[in-house]
């Protein structure tokens, strides 16, 4: 089993980071009622882990008995019926789903399916709670309409249902939804915390951890605990015993993005732009989300960029990311960003070096 | 036309020297590529020319008068036969060389004479001559006021005539046996040139077929063809692009001149230069030949063209020179201004410079004489036609000039011949064998009883079919789309009164009857089935019936269709001899068109006709219609007229997205009107933006002008890219929120703005790439991406189903994948085979990863230029892994999460249960999606486990069974160990019975993997 899964804390008491939040949650739940919750924070900070631990706290071990279903709903949307297919993860007490998977039909998922689920009270009489829990992932990716539909549902069926929303950025959740929830901000763990966790794991695994190695992994992890643990294990697979200056293998796609960045730096020409397009396509095809590509690309570009350009480039990156979300064909906007960067950088080079 | 004028001058001179007898023979000899004769009377020259130019305008009257005169002349010569004409042509051809030879000798002397005295002025003198060419011939005529009417008429006639004739002969030249080898140089060069031209036109034709469609704007054959086929890499931008004013000249000032463009010009793009030359009546070819008058280049790049030009003594002309030529032609209308023309070489100046102004009056008489002689030969055919035309002017030209003999058919002569042969042999081949024994198959398997002519509309399929049959004395029966061509009535006996097809059947099978009625000479019939690909809805079973008819037919059947590859004709093709008509070349068409134009008294120059032929895309019928239409409003048609008219015409046609993008990005793209642009981009509002997006990087924007470091281009690219992004955003609004009123602005943002910013020359970015617009890559990439997301989702669900992890899809790809893949592949690389395989399978089982998921992961981590995850793994190991995995699959704890419908459930819930996991302490129930064969052992396993497990399990099992799901249980820890198959025995009855009773078995059988 992977270490990430193996050492995932199962109860609120066992969490290593965010202990204060865990304790608060525990108190919140033990008082027999629970408001709607909105967990937000960067990926790898432990939102999911906390939610699962919370559910276990609420419903006991039966919350672990989940089944995976791939359901097909027929939603009646006025003039036509729409087929929506969703994967749900459900136990007797909770249903977890990812409504944004339905793409631009997410509105119907929220309007019909979630409402349907929320309406029904749990039959389980033994259950301690009189409500069931709906866990919605990636709420920030829901379209505006879907979020609007959501808020009504949250109010109307609050007697029988609690929503736990989970997302990366609360800014992409409408204020109406946010105000109906108890917002739980889950910070990215600090590097020391990450290092602590890694040491904990190595102790459990009985590994020799050279001093400073955990810190290095923590540094490279971008403050994502999941990343840290995964790359820790990758190092373990790659080479054991560890050496102090052992290279920490980067993610395959990150490596590729950094290659793109350096090729952009090397030459700014239509030809290069064309090549970059091909590489971006490759990343997209390999299921790397375009926002992540853009972010990473910016990160790599900023590394080598002259400081006077940094602000401008960041501005453009944000600009194109916004457009990326408004649009549909990600490559257009990624390419536009690259073209913009090339033109700015080229101008800068010519200006500086003639 | 110009060259023909000059001939007269030559002739006159010749007459002086060699006497009248030669005059007619001379006409042909002076083809433009011949080094010209410069007059010895250089002093007089300028003056003479001035006179001419002064008269230039007035001479137009004479042209008109000439027409009247022509008619008169024609009456005289109407008796002469075409054949005779041709014969005499050959005569002249053969005989001409001696005269010419002498002439050449003279020229040499004269050249020297000429150059020395006027050394400074040499270049000066030559120019105006040329500009006056169009007028020069007529200028003479004016002097002979008395005779001029008749005279000029003759000239007009002979001019155009000989143009057509000369070409025609050039094509046929090879068939004429040269009697005097010495003098054949010139004549031989004709076919050569024709070849050049042909090659050229084929090139451009090929381009059209390649999906580019009609070239944008004025992109002509030379440059266009070139760009299309050969990658010349970087042709530099003109250094002073757009900085010079392009002159406007007299429309015909370059008439008869042939140009070749080489290298980079000073301020014009090649296409622009070509357009300019064509507009002024000049001809642009791709390679240098003897016919070439000028090599247009600003720098001697020493390529093949310039080498050849030097070898042939072709004059070099700079762009400024060209401008001057054009400009002066304009000025000379009012006053004969002498401008300087920087022709690099004076000596081998083009033949047009040779008009001798001296002794015009003396020659006048000769001229008349010559015309008499010439008229006999040249006007015969046209006069004949003319008579006809006056008789029936109301006919559309397409009917009026429908070919009367097979030789008249433009192009495809070999196919016509084939058709002819087929028809000739038909009777012996099929009827005679038929007599020997009924139902006997044709002995020659290659011979077909029917023929299928295919080709684009308007290239003469029907005409040739009819003509050939007529010529062979067949009576033709034509059935086309206007007739109902459904399946024949079952009862043919009902007779001819029924549908057309019945009558066809009659026709086809009634040969015997015909024979009886007229034994001596059976009237032969041929059935022409026109537009067979148009057999559709109404004509049910038409094609099948046609095939049946072909099988039993006793008369030849000619089927005609446009698209041979049409699905409907698939079956028919097997029964027919296939003849695919090709589009005639534009030269062929122009030749024919000029004949017709002449017959109708329409003045059109050849360049214009070629342009017309090119624009109508080989459709001669359409060309004729256009021509007739234009003849209503004007009697003189110029290059620009045709260009303009057809441009507005082509708008109404369907254009492919490629053509649209081509036009938008073409060098003329900036001159299109806004509505034209919208039309173009709206021709396919989905595809055009994709094509634009795919290709915009490839264009070197002409608006950037001089752009040393590519900075401007990069800026423009960024702007275009942003605009394309806008287009995408608007598209979302349109599609998602149905804001269709935005479609125009969407068009603007996604297609028009990028094209407006970047239109220019296309260049290739990759080695070996063809310089065509690529098809948009987005569609393909998007579908691959969709597929990969689906696969990733599968993997995701599997991982979730393993219950070991609770992760999202994005983190799975971004974070987990690297490690998962390492865990899966690294052991295979380092550890010994068995151990590695065992470990990996164990890991896969733990996370419910199937072999397919494994492949998915490998596929998804592939990046170009990076090592594949599977590199370094022995194939043996890999196959061992697959084997081991498959071996374990019988008892796999894994639950493939493929979507499985559960037919056992009567209620048929809306949901399709993929994988259900009810973890109960240490046990795991899972759905089994394996094959039926394994079911028995599965149930045994089940039973065994059942014995061990507690009661609760039983309850679970039953609850699951009740859902019609096949369940297998195992102690989780023994997942891999229990993979050993248990021998089937009778123990299974208990549980099997339960599941049977619940209909579980049935569902199991049905719930096979849906992969």
TrEMBL record, chain A:
Coiled coil: none annotated. One of its GO terms (cellular component) is DNA replication factor C complex. InterPro entries: AAA+_ATPase, DNA_pol3_clamp-load_cplx_C, DNA_Rep/Repair_Clamp_Loader, P-loop_NTPase. It is found in: Nucleus. It holds the Pfam family RFC_C. Keywords: DNA replication, Nucleus. GO terms for molecular function: DNA binding; DNA clamp loader activity. GO terms for biological process: DNA repair; DNA strand elongation involved in DNA replication. It comes from the Eukaryota. SMART domains: AAA. Gene3D superfamilies: 1.10.8.60, 1.20.272.10, P-loop containing nucleotide triphosphate hydrolases. Residues 33-192 form the AAA+ ATPase domain. Heterotetramer of subunits RFC2, RFC3, RFC4 and RFC5 that can form a complex with RFC1. May be involved in DNA replication and thus regulate cell proliferation. Belongs to the activator 1 small subunits family. PANTHER family: REPLICATION FACTOR C / DNA POLYMERASE III GAMMA-TAU SUBUNIT, REPLICATION FACTOR C SUBUNIT 3. This is Replication factor C subunit 3. The lineage of its organism: Eukaryota, Viridiplantae, Streptophyta, Embryophyta, Tracheophyta. The gene is LOC105155734.
Automatic annotation (TrEMBL), chain B:
Residues 1-252, 331-366, 921-1011 are annotated as: Disordered. Residues 249-327 form the BRCT domain. Its main location: nucleus. Residues 186-198, 921-947 have a biased composition (Acidic residues). Keywords: ATP-binding, DNA replication, Nucleotide-binding, Nucleus. SMART domains: AAA (SM00382), BRCT (SM00292). InterPro entries: AAA+_ATPase, ATPase_AAA_core, BRCT_dom, BRCT_dom_sf, DNA_pol3_clamp-load_cplx_C, DNA_replication_fac_RFC1_C, P-loop_NTPase, RFC1. Gene3D superfamilies: 1.10.8.60, 1.20.272.10, BRCT domain, P-loop containing nucleotide triphosphate hydrolases. The keyword Nucleus applies. It is found in: Nucleus. One of its GO terms (molecular function) is DNA clamp loader activity. It holds the Pfam family RFC1. This is Replication factor C subunit 1. It comes from Sesamum indicum. The lineage of its organism: Eukaryota, Viridiplantae, Streptophyta, Embryophyta, Tracheophyta.
């Amino acid at each position: 089993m992977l270490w990430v899964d193996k050492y995932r804390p199962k109860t609120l008491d066992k969490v290593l980071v965010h202990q204060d939040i865990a304790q608060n949650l525990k108190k919140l739940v033990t008082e027999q009622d629970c408001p709607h919750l909105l967990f937000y924070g960067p990926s790898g900070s432990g939102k999911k882990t906390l939610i699962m631990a919370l559910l276990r706290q609420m419903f006991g071990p039966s919350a672990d008995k989940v089944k995976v279903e791939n359901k097909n709903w027929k939603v009646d949307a006025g003039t036509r019926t729409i087929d929506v297919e969703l994967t749900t993860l459900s136990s007797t007490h909770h249903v977890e789903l990812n409504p944004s998977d339905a793409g631009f039909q997410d509105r119907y998922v929220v309007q019909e399916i979630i409402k349907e689920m929320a309406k029904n009270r749990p039959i389980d009489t033994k259950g301690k709670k009189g409500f069931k829990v709906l866990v919605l992932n990636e709420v920030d990716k829901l379209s505006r309409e879907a979020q609007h539909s959501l808020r009504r549902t949250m109010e109307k069926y609050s007697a029988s249902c609690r929503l736990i929303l989970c997302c990366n950025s609360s800014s992409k959740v409408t204020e109406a939804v946010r105000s109906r929830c108890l917002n739980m901000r889950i910070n990215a763990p600090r590097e020391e915390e990450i290092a602590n966790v890694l040491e904990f794991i190595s102790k459990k695994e009985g590994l020799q951890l050279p001093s400073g190695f955990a810190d290095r992994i923590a540094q490279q992890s971008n403050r994502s605990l999941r990343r840290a643990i995964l790359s820790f294990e990758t190092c373990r697979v790659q080479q054991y015993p560890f050496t102090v200056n052992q290279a920490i293998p980067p993610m395959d796609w990150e490596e590729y993005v950094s290659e793109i960045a350096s090729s952009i730096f090397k030459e700014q020409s239509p030809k290069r732009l064309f090549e970059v397009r091909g590489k971006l396509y490759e990343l997209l095809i390999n299921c790397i989300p375009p926002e992540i590509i853009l972010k990473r690309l910016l990160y790599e570009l900023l590394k080598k960029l002259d400081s006077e350009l940094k602000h401008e480039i960041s501005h453009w990156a944000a600009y194109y990311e916004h457009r990326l979300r408004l649009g549909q064909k990600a490559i257009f906007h990624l390419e536009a960003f690259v073209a913009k960067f090339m033109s700015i950088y080229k101008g800068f080079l010519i200006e500086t070096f003639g | 036309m110009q060259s023909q004028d000059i001939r007269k001058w030559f002739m006159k001179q010749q007459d002086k020297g060699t006497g009248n007898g030669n005059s007619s023979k001379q006409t042909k000899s002076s083809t433009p590529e011949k080094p010209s004769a410069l007059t010895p009377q250089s002093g007089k020259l300028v003056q003479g020319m001035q006179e001419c130019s002064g008269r230039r305008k007035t001479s137009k009257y004479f042209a008109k008068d000439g027409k009247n005169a022509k008619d008169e002349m024609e009456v005289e010569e109407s008796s002469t036969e075409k054949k005779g004409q041709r014969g005499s042509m050959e005569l002249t051809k053969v005989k001409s060389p001696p005269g010419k030879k002498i002439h050449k000798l003279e020229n040499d002397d004269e050249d020297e004479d000429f150059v020395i005295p006027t050394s400074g002025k040499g270049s000066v003198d030559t120019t105006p001559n040329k500009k006056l060419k169009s007028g020069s011939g007529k200028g003479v005529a004016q002097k002979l006021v008395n005779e001029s009417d008749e005279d000029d008429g003759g000239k007009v006639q002979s001019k155009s005539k000989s143009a057509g004739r000369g070409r025609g002969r050039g094509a046929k030249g090879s068939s004429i046996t040269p009697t005097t080898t010495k003098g054949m140089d010139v004549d031989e060069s004709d076919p050569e040139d024709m070849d050049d031209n042909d090659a050229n036109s084929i090139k451009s034709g090929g381009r059209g077929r390649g999906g580019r469609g009609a070239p944008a704007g004025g992109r002509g054959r030379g440059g266009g063809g070139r760009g299309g086929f050969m990658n010349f890499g970087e042709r530099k931008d003109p250094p002073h692009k757009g900085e010079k004013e392009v002159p406007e000249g007299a429309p015909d000032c370059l008439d008869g001149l042939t140009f070749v463009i080489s290298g980079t010009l000073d301020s014009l793009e090649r296409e622009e230069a070509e357009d300019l030359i064509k507009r002024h009546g000049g001809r642009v070819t791709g390679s240098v030949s003897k016919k070439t008058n000028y090599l247009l280049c600003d720098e001697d790049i020493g390529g093949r063209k310039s080498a050849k030009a030097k070898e042939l003594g072709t004059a070099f002309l700079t762009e400024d020179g060209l401008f001057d030529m054009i400009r002066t032609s304009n000025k000379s209308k009012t006053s004969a201004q002498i401008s300087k023309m920087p022709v690099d070489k004076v000596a081998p100046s083009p033949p047009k410079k040779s008009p001798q102004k001296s002794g015009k009056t003396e020659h006048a008489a000769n001229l008349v004489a010559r015309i008499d002689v010439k008229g006999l030969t040249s006007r015969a055919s046209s006069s004949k036609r003319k008579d006809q035309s006056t008789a029936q002017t109301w006919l559309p030209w397409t009917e009026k000039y429908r070919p009367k003999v097979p030789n008249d058919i433009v192009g495809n002569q070999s196919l016509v011949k084939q058709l002819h042969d087929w028809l000739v042999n038909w009777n012996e081949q099929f009827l005679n064998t038929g007599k020997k024994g009924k139902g006997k198959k044709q002995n020659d398997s290659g011979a077909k009883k029917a023929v299928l002519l295919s080709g684009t509309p308007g290239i003469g399929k029907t005409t040739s079919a009819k003509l050939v049959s007529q010529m062979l004395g067949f009576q033709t029966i034509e059935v086309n789309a206007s007739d109902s061509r459904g399946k024949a009535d079952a009862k043919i006996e009902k007779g001819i009164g029924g549908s057309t097809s019945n009558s066809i059947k009659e026709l086809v099978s009634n040969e015997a009857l015909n024979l009886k009625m007229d034994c001596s000479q059976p009237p032969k019939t041929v059935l022409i089935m026109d537009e067979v690909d148009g057999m559709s809805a109404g004509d049910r079973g038409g094609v099948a019936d046609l095939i049946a008819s072909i099988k039993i037919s006793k008369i030849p059947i000619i089927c005609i269709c446009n698209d041979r590859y049409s699905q409907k004709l698939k079956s028919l093709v097997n029964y027919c001899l296939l003849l695919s008509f090709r589009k005639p070349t534009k030269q062929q068409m122009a030749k024919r068109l000029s004949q017709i134009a002449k017959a109708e008294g329409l003045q059109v120059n050849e360049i214009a006709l070629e342009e017309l032929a090119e624009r109508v895309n080989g459709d001669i019928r359409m060309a004729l219609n256009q021509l007739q239409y234009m003849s209503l409003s004007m009697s003189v048609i110029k290059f620009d007229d045709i260009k303009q008219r057809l441009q507005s015409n082509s708008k109404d046609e369907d254009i492919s997205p490629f053509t649209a993008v081509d036009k938008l990005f073409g060098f003329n793209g900036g001159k299109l009107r806004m509505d034209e642009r919208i039309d173009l981009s709206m021709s396919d509002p989905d595809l055009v933006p994709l094509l634009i997006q795919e290709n915009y990087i490839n264009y070197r924007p002409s608006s950037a002008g001089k752009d040393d470091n590519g900075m401007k281009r990069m800026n423009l690219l960024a702007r275009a890219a942003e605009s394309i992004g806008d287009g995408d955003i608007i598209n979302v609004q349109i599609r998602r929120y149905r804001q269709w009123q935005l479609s125009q602005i969407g068009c603007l943002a996604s297609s028009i703005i990028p094209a407006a910013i970047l239109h220019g020359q296309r260049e290739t970015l990759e080695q070996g790439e063809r310089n065509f617009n690529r098809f948009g890559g987005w569609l393909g990439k998007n579908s691959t991406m969709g597929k990969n997301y689906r696969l990733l989702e599968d993997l995701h669900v599997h991982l979730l189903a393993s219950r070991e992890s609770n992760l999202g899809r994005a983190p799975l790809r971004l974070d987990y994948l690297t490690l998962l893949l390492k865990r899966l592949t690294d052991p295979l690389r380092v550890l010994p085979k068995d151990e590695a395989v065992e470990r990996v399978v164990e890991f896969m089982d733990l996370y419910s990863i199937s072999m397919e998921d494994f492949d998915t992961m490998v596929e998804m981590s592939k990046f170009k230029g990076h090592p594949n995850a599977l590199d370094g793994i022995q194939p043996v190991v890999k196959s061992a892994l697959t084997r081991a995995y498959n071996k374990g699959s019988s008892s796999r704890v894994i639950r493939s999460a493929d979507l499985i419908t559960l037919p056992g459930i009567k209620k048929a819930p809306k949901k399709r249960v993929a994988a259900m996991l009810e973890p109960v302490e240490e046990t795991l129930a899972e759905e089994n999606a394996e094959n039926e064969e394994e079911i028995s052992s599965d149930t045994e396993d089940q039973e065994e486990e059942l014995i061990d497990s507690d009661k609760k399990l039983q309850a679970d099992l039953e609850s699951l069974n009740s859902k019609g799901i096949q369940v297998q249980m195992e102690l989780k820890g023994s997942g891999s160990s229990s993979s050993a198959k248990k021998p089937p025995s009778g123990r299974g009855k208990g549980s099997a019975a339960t599941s049977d009773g619940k209909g579980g078995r049935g569902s199991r059988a049905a719930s096979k993997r849906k992969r």
